[in-house]
Write a structure and sequence with these properties.
This protein is α/β, with parallel strands linked by helices and 401 residues long. The chain is 27% helix and 24% strand. Strands 9-8-7-10-11-14-13 form a seven-stranded mixed β-sheet, sandwiched between helices. α7 (215-221) packs across α9 (283-309). The two termini are 31 Å apart.
């Protein structure tokens, strides 16, 4: 849990340049404001049943778009050191996150011969869920994360903020290294700094694997409910390639995955000569159209289900519920939200009113609003579960599922 003081004293600073190409926000022909999000909720924090709403957890936000490199980013940056010093989210607690890690593992395993002989270094490894998947691994396993944890004592923990990593110590390890990082790069204020540090200390036979939310898929599927304060950067294939090329890093292979958010997955190696190029998509216009459709969809949905779910019940207290509520306010008028995670029972989101209850409190004779739709997997699983329980009226508020 967290205290009101964390958010009351939370510093917010302006992002004045595109994190990829460094174009200044003053160049209004190159940098455009795509979305204005006043009093936008902070996610991933809960409060006790009788604690008051934390109004300070609503922070103004603006979404900027760099037309120069097809990169989307946030203008207002929250003090991540404070946010992540109180971070309690773990990868294994989300089925969507677990599935995404399993797909990432398969991508890595298919692209590397004898992965078990490489040192595995997970940048932002959280609870070491990805490292556990490499069961036959013989070389070192290292998890770098300020809140890193591991049940396996053979996993080496480096508890530090990613901006403070000196990759030089890993370049001296016996054998070659595979650096992996899952859904971490989007959280960094200055991703170029970390990637430059990594590039400077990557050897010829070392390999880098990254995965993070895809801007192309966000725009294609209209998933603007996936924008949150903690995700500062939204890379397109063009923008990440542009950044990597500047740092003598080359994309060897890539794939998209729509099972968790919309994910872009990369295999990267050090290469000064054979730099790849990808066609610029000019995503700004598409993003504008997609966001207008997204807004209209949720405005119409709010009108059509408002009476049905006022003082009603929801299902799924996933991390992104406050964001969905921002676009679909009826969620805040629910009496309660059902969840199966015991650690959330009899708690509330820091910025929402509904109480989180266990499955026994579900009334199968009343309609249910699915409130956890951040991933296709979550939405489908909840819908199937509710159908099997015999609930006749189920609302799944997602544009793509």
């Amino acid at each position: 849990m967290t205290s009101k003081n964390l958010f009351k004293n939370l510093k917010v600073k302006n992002n004045n340049k595109c994190p990829v190409c460094r174009t200044s926000l003053k160049q209004k022909n190159k940098i455009k404001q795509l979305i204005n999000l006043p009093k936008y909720p902070i996610t991933e924090f809960y409060r006790k049943k009788n604690e008051k709403l934390i109004k300070e957890s609503l922070k103004d936000q603006k979404v900027m778009f760099c037309k120069n490199c097809d990169h989307m980013f946030l203008k207002n940056i929250l003090d991540v050191r404070k946010i992540y010093s109180n971070y309690i989210t773990s990868s294994h607690s989300s089925r969507g996150a677990v599935l995404c890690l399993e797909n990432f593992y398969n991508f890595i395993n298919n692209k590397v011969i004898k992965t078990e002989n490489y040192n595995l270094i997970d940048i932002g490894g959280n609870d070491s869920s990805l490292l556990y998947l490499f069961k036959k691994h013989k070389a070192k396993k290292i998890n770098i994360d300020p809140n890193g944890s591991a049940r396996n004592k053979k996993i080496i923990l480096k508890k530090m903020f990613l901006e403070n990593i000196n990759f030089k110590e890993f370049s001296n390890l016996k054998g070659n290294n595979v650096y992996v990082s899952s859904h971490t790069l989007e959280h960094l204020e200055d991703p170029a700094k970390l990637l430059e540090n990594l590039s400077n200390n990557t050897r010829e036979n070392d390999i880098i694997f990254l995965q993070f939310p895809s801007l192309e898929k966000l725009v294609e599927h209209g998933r603007f409910d996936q924008i949150c304060h903690q995700h500062i950067n939204y890379f397109s294939l063009f923008s990440i390639n542009k950044l990597l090329n500047k740092l003598n890093l080359t994309i060897i292979d890539f794939e998209y995955d729509t099972s968790h958010f919309g994910t872009l997955r990369l295999k990267i190696k050090k290469n000064k000569l054979n730099k790849k190029t990808y066609k610029k998509q000019n995503l700004y216009g598409e993003a504008q159209k997609s966001y207008l459709i997204f807004k209209e969809y949720y405005l119409n949905l709010q009108k059509s289900i408002n009476k049905l779910f006022k003082n009603g019940q929801g299902y799924g207290a996933g991390l992104m519920v406050p964001i969905l509520t921002y676009h679909l306010p009826i969620i805040n008028e629910l009496n309660f939200i059902i969840d199966e995670n015991r650690s959330k029972f009899d708690k509330r989101f820091i910025n929402l009113k509904p109480l989180i209850k266990n499955l026994k409190k579900l009334d199968v004779n009343k309609p249910v609003l699915i409130t956890s739709v951040s991933t296709k997997e979550a939405g489908r699983n909840i819908f199937n579960k509710l159908s099997n329980l015999g609930i006749k009226d189920i609302c799944l508020p997602s544009m793509v599922i």
